[in-house]
């Protein structure tokens, strides 16, 4: 518990993040103090871990007006593991095969045995109704009651747990979908119904139908989880507002999450990106790579000019073999490597790290919970990059168990244990670096223009090595990086958005019609947001953007309007053209002056601002450093190393590597040649230009 620079006023804000290994809670109390808690994730009963962590952190969560924002991987796990409901798809006559046909392409044309993942709804659970909406949005035929009675009987016979409705062209005119949904809800009140137009107003029926079926697939499991969690919190005296993190980088009311759980598909990872965005704004840093490594995965996202990018298509199971969702998500790239990633020898006799993780049970060998396989955490402990006496508050590290795990694998490869441990760290670093390179170099961004913000329990351990490999000169270490995703969650605003088709030449864009559309959509979205009775809440911010491309291109660039609000200036086409050309040159290095610019889609984003929470934390310095040894690449022997408690560092302190900084929830490894300095804001900046590759 520590003082914060600025807090949420009189409102208690809590962020709760469930990871593959740990469940983290961060809270800013009404007293203006920061509280943090960490628990091993209770797989199979994740809600219990959240409740325990909230209790352990010590904040008073019973105050009226308390806001608890929760991020979870429940939705993505249910989709990947195929642990959802028995879903029926109701669709336009003649379109029951859309999910099986998909885009009709073969992503891996040279793979003889290529197979796409089967759809969530089999052909036997697809039901066609005689409805028709024309391409211009005209409703030509609406299903009658007799046909809908037959549909109800079919759903009962086939024991559908959840229903998805997806009609052709409903993104323009959702009337038929709404009519059928209303009928089914009256006839089958216990069966949840999802309509595609509620989730997406974009074209491409395959993507829209997969989004609707995915939402229907996870609705029952999400409802059960949220009911258990909210009931458990309320039994402990919680009487505030419960929010769920939206994949687009905001928060939504729990009732919204119950209806549209697919919007929480990336609910877990977005907290760290929100925190990175807010801290970058506070510190006036233009370009940041948000890097978060936990126990299972490593994730990266860009924060540029004070905001993060979002994308409108998210692939479940990978773009090659998976299926797409038309939901707005923060543009996060991730790879299956983290502190719990298991090191092993594959069939070819090669060392591999991940994607399988030891999780929280049994966990890495050093946790002493029964794990015997070597993990990335065990390798770091073996190399002296983790202070065994200051790693966790709830258990002691079992150093001999980690040594046995590393030595057993080393004997299989006939190499020294030290070389194996360094090799495990090296492989994990290279895998994580790939996501950072894809965000920077592979998108035409110069990595030297960016600062790597390290978070997650394992992120600071590997951040310097990743920065060196990616060509980034500086690493930014925030306070409490091991709880940073939870900290970002408690700072999230209520947010919702909608993307609609806007197919017209930019030069002939009807500004008046666009202004009407923006105002109408913003009004609808603002009504979907609920602020509760929170001090300081209520301010609504509206932003809109237009997707623009050269005619004939497949992809477009999203260009934001020049000002906030629903006003559409008369010179908007000229302003958008100028900004598009500037961004196009920045990204691709040239312009196509002979081609016509066309608008493709409109995005309207509405946020309701909640009380501001600072991401800058300061506390008095205390504690004493110790001296030990650690192992690094390129060194012939173990090097003398300083082990420093984060709380012992004062503003202006300089730390030369090799050094290890430990704090609650995370450890930072500073390699030889790197220089770290504590800033006035309390963050640590590490210059890695002197580190040898």
UniProtKB/TrEMBL annotation:
<feature type="domain" description="Hydantoinase A/oxoprolinase">
    <location>
        <begin position="208"/>
        <end position="497"/>
    </location>
</feature>
<dbReference type="Pfam" id="PF05378">
    <property type="entry name" value="Hydant_A_N"/>
</dbReference>
<dbReference type="GO" id="GO:0005829">
    <property type="term" value="C:cytosol"/>
</dbReference>
<dbReference type="InterPro" id="IPR045079">
    <property type="entry name" value="Oxoprolinase-like"/>
</dbReference>
<dbReference type="GO" id="GO:0006749">
    <property type="term" value="P:glutathione metabolic process"/>
</dbReference>
<protein>
    <submittedName>
        <fullName>Hydantoinase/oxoprolinase family protein</fullName>
    </submittedName>
</protein>
<dbReference type="Pfam" id="PF01968">
    <property type="entry name" value="Hydantoinase_A"/>
</dbReference>
<dbReference type="InterPro" id="IPR002821">
    <property type="entry name" value="Hydantoinase_A"/>
</dbReference>
<dbReference type="InterPro" id="IPR008040">
    <property type="entry name" value="Hydant_A_N"/>
</dbReference>
<dbReference type="GO" id="GO:0017168">
    <property type="term" value="F:5-oxoprolinase (ATP-hydrolyzing) activity"/>
</dbReference>
<feature type="domain" description="Hydantoinase/oxoprolinase N-terminal">
    <location>
        <begin position="13"/>
        <end position="187"/>
    </location>
</feature>
């Amino acid at each position: 518990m520590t003082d914060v620079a600025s807090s949420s006023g009189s409102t208690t804000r809590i962020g709760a993040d469930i990871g593959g290994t740990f469940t983290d809670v961060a809270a800013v109390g009404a007293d203006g103090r920061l509280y943090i808690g960490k628990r091993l994730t209770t797989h199979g009963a994740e809600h219990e871990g959240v409740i325990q962590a909230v209790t352990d952190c010590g904040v008073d969560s019973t105050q009226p007006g308390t806001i608890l924002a929760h991020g979870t991987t429940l939705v993505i796990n249910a989709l990947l593991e195929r642990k959802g409901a028995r879903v029926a798809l109701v669709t336009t006559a003649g379109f029951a095969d859309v999910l099986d046909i998909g885009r009709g392409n073969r992503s891996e044309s040279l793979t003889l045995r290529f197979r796409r993942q089967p759809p969530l709804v089999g052909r036997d659970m697809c039901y066609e109704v005689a409805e028709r909406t024309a391409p211009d949005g005209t409703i030509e035929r609406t299903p009658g009651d007799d046909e809908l009675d037959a549909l109800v009987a079919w759903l009962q016979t086939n024991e559908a747990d959840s229903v998805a409705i997806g009609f052709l062209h409903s993104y323009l005119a959702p009337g038929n979908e709404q009519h059928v949904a209303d009928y089914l809800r009256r006839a089958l009140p216990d069966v949840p119904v999802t309509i595609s137009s509620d989730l997406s107003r974009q074209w491409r029926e395959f993507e829209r139908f997969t989004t609707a079926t995915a939402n229907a697939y996870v609705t029952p499991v999400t409802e059960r989880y949220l009911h258990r969690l909210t009931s458990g919190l309320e039994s402990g005296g919680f009487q505030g507002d419960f929010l769920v993190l939206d994949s687009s980088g905001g928060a939504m009311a729990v009732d919204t999450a119950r209806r549209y759980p697919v919007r929480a598909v990336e609910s877990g990872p977005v907290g760290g990106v929100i925190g990175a965005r807010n801290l970058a704004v506070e510190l006036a840093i233009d370009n940041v790579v948000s890097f978060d490594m936990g126990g299972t995965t490593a994730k990266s996202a860009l924060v540029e000019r004070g905001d993060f990018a979002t994308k409108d298509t998210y692939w479940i199971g990978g773009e090659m073999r998976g299926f797409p969702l038309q939901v707005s998500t923060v543009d996060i790239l991730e790879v299956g490597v983290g502190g719990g990633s298991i090191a092993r020898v594959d069939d070819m006799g090669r060392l591999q790290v991940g994607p399988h993780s030891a999780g929280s049970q049994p966990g890495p060998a050093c946790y002493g919970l029964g794990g015997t396989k070597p993990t990335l955490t065990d390798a770091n402990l073996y190399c002296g990059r983790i202070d065994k006496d200051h790693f966790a508050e709830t258990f002691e590290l079992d150093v001999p168990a980690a040594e046995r795990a590393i030595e057993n694998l080393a004997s299989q490869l006939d190499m020294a244990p030290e070389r194996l441990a360094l090799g495990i760290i090296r492989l994990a670093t290279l895998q994580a670096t790939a996501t950072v390179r894809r965000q920077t170099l592979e998108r035409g961004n110069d990595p030297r223009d960016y600062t790597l913000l390290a978070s997650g329990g394992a992120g600071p351990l590997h951040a310097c090595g990743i920065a060196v490999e990616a060509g980034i000169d500086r690493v930014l270490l925030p306070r409490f990086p091991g709880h940073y995703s939870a900290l970002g969650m408690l700072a999230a605003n209520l947010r919702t958005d909608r993307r609609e088709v806007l197919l017209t030449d930019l030069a002939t864009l009807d500004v008046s019609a666009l202004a009407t559309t923006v105002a109408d959509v913003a009004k609808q979205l603002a009504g979907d947001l609920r602020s509760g009775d929170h001090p300081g809440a209520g301010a609504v911010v509206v932003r809109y953007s237009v997707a623009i491309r050269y005619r004939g291109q497949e992809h477009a660039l999203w260009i934001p309007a020049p000002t906030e609000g629903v006003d559409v200036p008369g010179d908007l086409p000229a302003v958008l053209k100028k900004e598009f050309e500037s961004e196009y040159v920045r990204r691709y290095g040239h312009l196509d002056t002979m081609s016509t610019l066309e608008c493709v889609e409109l995005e309207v984003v509405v946020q309701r601002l909640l009380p501001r929470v600072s991401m800058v934390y300061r506390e008095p310095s205390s504690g004493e450093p110790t001296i030990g040894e650690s192992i690094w690449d390129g060194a012939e022997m173990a090097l003398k190393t300083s082990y420093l408690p984060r709380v012992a560092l004062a503003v202006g302190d300089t730390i030369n590597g090799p050094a290890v900084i430990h704090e609650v929830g995370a450890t930072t490894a500073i390699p030889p040649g790197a220089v770290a300095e504590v800033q006035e804001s309390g963050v640590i900046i590490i210059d890695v230009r002197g580190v040898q590759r």
